[in-house]
Specification:
Elements: H1 2-21, H2 25-31, H3 49-56
Length: 70
């Protein structure tokens, strides 16, 4: 029984930490973009050029122009 309580507590703790480590869905909703527009892959903290711009410009993509593909 004690083991079950410990496992439940760990599950709750890891779930709350996971939420802190991911992108904020309201940013994606606000900008009308998928999370992967700013993040290299889902659940990753690594940012694309757009994500870096967004972070450095007060959480706004206003004025962002993607680099030309060659």
């Amino acid at each position: 029984m004690r083991l079950l309580k410990v496992l439940v507590a760990l599950a709750i703790l890891s779930g709350s930490l996971l939420t802190l480590a991911t992108a904020k869905p309201e940013y994606a909703k606000k900008e009308g973009k998928a999370c992967t527009f700013c993040h290299v892959k889902m659940g990753s903290k690594e940012l694309t050029d757009a994500g870096k711009y967004y972070k450095e410009h007060n959480h706004s993509l206003e004025g962002y122009k993607p680099a030309a593909k060659t």
